[in-house]
Task: structure prediction
Amino acid sequence: MNAETVDKQPRFLSLQEIADDLGESVETVRGWAQDGRLAPLYGLPNGKRKVLRDDYEKWLRTQVIDRRHPGTRACHRSSVR
Result:
């Protein structure tokens, strides 16, 4: 990926974009966000709530792959609380 490609990526991701990326419903992702199990949400001036791409990518690296459903991820942190 070159610098020009990186610059064209949106800074924020919608819950729908995250749901599509994870293969989950937007309702499920919204529930994770409301429960605090997703990267932080930011309220934008237009009233939309979105996640910073960098925060999402960091959060994604902390998730455990759900082996029962290949291609999906379990929404919990890999560290023990």
